Every structure is written in structure tokens, then in C-alpha cells.
Amino acid sequence: MVGREDVRVREARFEALVRVVAGPVQRYLVRRADADAVEDVLAETMVVLWRRIDDVPGLGDGTAVDPDEVLPWCYGVARGCLANARRADGRRLRLVERLTRTAVELPAASIDHSELYDALRSLGELDREVVMLWAWEGLAPKGIAEVTGLTPNAVSIRLHRAKKRLAVLLGRKNETAAGQELGKEGSEL
């Protein structure tokens, strides 16, 4: 278990390290990354330095930091963080491209769903979330329970009641049985 004194020493070592390397590492990143990514990569670099404070070569146990000993290692960490950020950006770009290629064209005349949205708004917030997770996200009660913190049984009950209420609000209940219509002579159409 780490004591308070150990935490204070660790914090002091980290603060001393940051005072020495933050400026040079930021300049290193400015020369290699897009301007909008520099601060994020710098922050990620500092997180890694904090986690790996004991691995920083030349840092020692005190607060005296020799830039010549710690900077190369810190540049290596920043280089790795920058590579991770570039890979993440590449994955995001490929995902957007894939989604763009597979996007379904919507009909020119948009369907009016205002009645559905009004009915959903009439439900309580939790019931609405349960219904939307079931209908739009395709989750089963067990998955919905994980998202909402309810039990799967409570989700099933809420879902059943909310669906019944929506059916009434949307006027979907009627006296005729579901299925195919029969012709005049009783044969199927």
C-alpha cells in the first residue's frame, strides 16, 4: 500500500520532471503534429510520464532533474503518444469513410414521425430510455439492465408497460386480429 509520504514524493518528482520537460516536449510535438492535436498528445504524454515516473531514466529519487538525461526518454514517450493519436485519427477517418459508403439514402419526402415522438415524450424518462434502447439500439432486457442499472426483470416489466402505453397512444390497438385480410368469399387476398 502506498503511504501519503510516498505519494507526496512521487508528486514532487513528477512536478520537477514536468517543469523541465513540458516546454521542450510541447515544442517537439508542435513541430510534428497538427496544431489542434498538440495539447491532447501533450496531455497524454504527461499521463504516461506520471504512470511511469519510476521508469524515467536519470530522474532519481530527488527533485533535481537533468534535462540531458530525461528528455530523450520523454521524447520517446511523446513520439509513442503521437503515433497512437495518428492511428486513432486514421481509424476514425476509415470509419467515417466506411459509414459514408454504406449510408442508406433517405427518401426525398421525409416521413412524419411527430406522432411517435410525441408519444415517446409522454413516457417517463427511464421508460423512454428503456424503449429506445430496445427499439433503436436492439438491446435485450439483459443489455438494457446493464445500461440503466435496473434488473433484467424490472426492464422487462417497464418495457412491456411502456409498449402497451405507446400502442394506446398511437392508436395501434383495434378490434381486428393481426394477419392477412380475407377476401369477400373468405379466401386470402
Descriptive account of the structure:
This protein has 189 residues and is mostly helical. The protein folds into two domains: 4-102, RNA polymerase sigma factor, region 2, helix turn helix motif (Rna Polymerase Sigma Factor, Chain: A, Orthogonal Bundle); 114-169, Winged helix-like DNA-binding domain superfamily/Winged helix DNA-binding domain (Arc Repressor Mutant, subunit A, Orthogonal Bundle), CATH 1.10.10.10. It has seven helices and no strands. The model has no long low-confidence stretch (mean pLDDT 84).
TL;DR of this structure?
It contains seven helices and no strands. It has 189 residues and is mainly α.
Blueprint of the fold:
Blueprint (H helix, E strand, L loop, with lengths): L3 H27 L4 H17 L15 H36 L11 H9 L2 H11 L5 H8 L3 H18 L20
Helix pairs in contact: 1-2, 1-3, 2-3, 5-7, 6-7
List keywords for this structure.
189 residues; mainly alpha; Rna Polymerase Sigma Factor, Chain: A; 2 domains
Strand percentage lies at: under 5%
What is the mean predicted local confidence, pLDDT? 84
Instruction: Give the domain tally.
Output: 2
The CATH class assignment of the largest domain is Mainly Alpha
Helix-strand makeup class: mainly alpha
CATH superfamily of the largest domain, please? RNA polymerase sigma factor, region 2, helix turn helix motif
Distance between the termini: 77 Å
**Order of secondary-structure elements:** HHHHHHH
Overall geometry: elongated
**Total DSSP E strands:** 0
Question: Count of helices?
Answer: 7
Percent helix: 55-70%
Radius of gyration: 29 Å
In the CATH hierarchy, what is the architecture of the largest domain at level 2?
Orthogonal Bundle
Could you tell me the CATH topology label of the largest domain: Rna Polymerase Sigma Factor, Chain: A
Could you describe the largest sheet, including whether it forms a barrel?
Answer: none
Low-confidence stretches: none
